[in-house]
Amino acid sequence: MKLADRVAQSRMPFMIRDCATGAVTKLNNCADFADEIGRCPLRFVLSDELTRLCTALAYSKGASTLACADLLHVPAELVWVEWCHFPWLRELEQYGFPVHDPRSDRGGRRGALIRSTPDGRRGTLRTFWTEEGDTSALASSVEAYFDLDTSRDQEPDPPDGQVSPTVRVCDRAQAGDDDLLHRCFRFRFERTWREYHDQSSQSIAEREALMRHGLGTIAIDIPVILVFFLLLATRSGLPQRCESLVRLNRARLRVGRAPLLEHIEVNCPMLPAFGTVDLKDPSGTRRSPRLHHVRGHLFRRGSELFWRVPHLRGSPRSGKVATRTVTWTFDQNVRP
Fold it and tell me: Do 159 and 295 fall into the same domain?
């Protein structure tokens, strides 16, 4: 079952009891989003290959989603995006992120609900996930709001008007204006979670630890989502398929089960393959470079993005790479 269906079918409120006082508090979680997910006009489900590509584009050395803020926009005022845990974790591991064994979470899924202004440039974002063997879904206690038109000397304003303490997330690999996450995004506890923490007797260190934990459930997803929206806005777009669930849902309704949500499956555009190469060139006197992997990287020229595909470098005697560069072209006026 897709994560969107698990959230849409959530009915149990998220309650927490204070062990010291016995007081019970209701906190915002999946059940509060069930109706919103159900009426969401765009629900995207990423294929495993597209998940890997978006993660690589987001976190490869030299990737700059970054200098492409003017090309980015959310495609609707309410959008759902989800993907499988396993390929996402495997790709993060390739780029140096310390992750647990991804094979232990093959059935887990991640997703995000994005609310946006009509121009797709400002909004809020909340993440969700489910783990292997767990039928229930969870929502992040931390939410993000963004303004993609924020300049270096400005602060993004919360689109809902709620004024509360916020946190910035900085990518130290990026500098100055190129750090889109640092410039355009702010993170805060969701209102009910913030009020719960404000009323508790937590120390400053405990509060900071909770915020860091909450950031870990949302901040790492945002570059991947931004890359997906960037690819979606290219002139050629991404391969999409809408599968009808009418017959399946008719059968589910007959046995008293909730219908599944319609969604758009989004696939990865075909990328050129590369072959293996020898460790040395026997025809020369000089030893060729050892076989090694070269990270992919992204760069931009005007209205075109160039993605240098991750590839093997070394002797070409056992095969030749036709091209290592994929080009995506944008229309001159991509913003609505």
Answer: no
CA 7 from chain centre, in angstroms, equals 17
pLDDT digits (tens, 9 = 90+) for 15-36: 998 887 888 999 999 999 999 9
Last residue of one domain, picked from the residues 219, 244, 266: 266
Q: Both 141 and 121 in a single domain?
A: yes
Main-chain dihedrals φ then ψ at residue 133, nearest 5 degrees:
80, 0
End-to-end CA separation in angstroms for the chain: 34
Residues in the chain: 336
Name the pTM for this structure: 0.82
**Strands, E assignment, 88-205:** 109-116, 122-130, 138-139, 142-147, 185-189
Q: Tell me the C-alpha distance between 81 and 2, whole Å.
A: 11
The 3-class secondary structure across 213-233, one letter per residue, is HHHHCCHHHHHHHHHHHHHHC
Whether residues 294 and 256 share a domain: the answer is: no
Could you report the per-residue pLDDT of 293-313, keeping only the tens digit for each? 566 666 677 777 776 666 666
Q: What's the pLDDT at 329?
A: 75
> Could you tell me the two tokens for 44?
């995207």
